[in-house]
Amino acid sequence: MIKQIREQEDVAVPILITQKARQIAHQFAQQQPDEAKAQQVYRNTLAVCIINNYFKILGIPSDPSNCDSWNLLMQMTANVADLDVIGRGSIECRPISEWERETKSVCYVPTEVQDERIAYVVVQIEPEQREALILGFVEQVNSEELPLNRLRPMSDLPTYLEEYQPRSPTEQVTQLTNWLHDQIEAGWQKLDEILEISLMNYQWQNTRSLTTESTVPVLSRVVRGKVFEIPIQQGMEPIVLITELVPKSEVDLSVELKICPPTKQAFLPVGLEMSVIDAVGEVVMHVQARDKNRMIELGFHAEVGDRFSLRIELENVIINEEFVV
Question: Most Cβ neighbours (<10 Å): which of 74, 210, 242, 281?
Answer without folding.
Answer: 242
